[in-house]
Task: inverse folding
């Protein structure tokens, strides 16, 4: 739905204001992020695209999205990373003595998250669950995850299974999960646990977080940022031509 919080962006509606304006007052809120890589993958994966389209909030987690919104629609939006959302919600929960649940990643990573969370946010009650490491979950796997979440009944559920699996899973099970806010935040689990270092504030403030990650892990990240960067650019240029014709 187009409102003061969202702006049209290609096939999607992108959240365009501050996290303090998150529409989370009624019912369940499914929050996902989109960047140039996930946009391109979703164009080839309908289930993934459907999960993004059906998200209640879609955050612009990528400088490519910010640039394209300006280039295509003259809309100025700010990049909001999954890590920004995570920090915002933790601060909110700590003030309200709320609860959260971490679903995903390894037991080692979840243990490190628990240690840090206990120190930094003492007013938050939390629990964790490490699902089986596999490409496709069985019915029993899904039931085990849902049961673990619902038994704890958290205010916020953080899902970290890597994209696009986490977005598909969250969308598919939204109605059966007892959580007020459901967030797919992927790499944030490793960032917060300290098992993977996020690029410094300098890179982030310059809008070059992607470059910091590329330089650190070129073999793993080159396709995400270079190859799919050009594919995303192609989509944007085609859309610009269509808008000019109209």
Result:
């Amino acid at each position: 739905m187009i409102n003061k919080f969202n702006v049209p962006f290609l096939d999607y509606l992108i959240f365009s204001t501050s996290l303090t304006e998150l529409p989370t007052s009624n019912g369940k809120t499914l929050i996902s992020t989109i960047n140039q890589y996930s946009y391109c993958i979703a164009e080839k994966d309908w289930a993934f695209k459907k999960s993004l389209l059906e998200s209640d909030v879609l955050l612009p987690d990528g400088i490519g999205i910010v640039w394209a919104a300006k280039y295509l629609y003259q809309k100025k939006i700010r990049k909001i990373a999954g890590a920004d959302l995570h920090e915002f919600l933790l601060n909110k929960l700590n003030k309200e003595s709320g609860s959260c649940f971490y679903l995903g990643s390894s037991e080692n990573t979840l243990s490190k998250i628990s240690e840090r969370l206990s120190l930094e946010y003492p007013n938050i009650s939390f629990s964790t669950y490490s699902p089986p490491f596999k490409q496709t979950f069985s019915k029993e796997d899904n039931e085990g995850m849902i049961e673990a979440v619902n038994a704890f009944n958290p205010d916020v559920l953080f899902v970290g299974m890597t994209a696009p699996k986490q977005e598909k899973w969250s969308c598919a099970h939204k109605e059966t999960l007892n959580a007020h806010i459901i967030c797919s935040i992927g790499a944030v689990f490793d960032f917060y646990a300290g098992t993977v270092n996020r690029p410094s504030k300098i890179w982030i403030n310059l809008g070059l977080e992607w470059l910091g990650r590329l330089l650190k892990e070129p073999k793993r990240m080159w396709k995400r940022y270079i190859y799919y960067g050009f594919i995303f650019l192609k989509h944007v240029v085609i859309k610009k031509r269509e808008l000019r014709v109209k």
In short: DSSP finds eleven helices and eight strands in the chain. The CA atoms of residues 40 and 232 lie 6 Å apart. The mean pLDDT is 90.
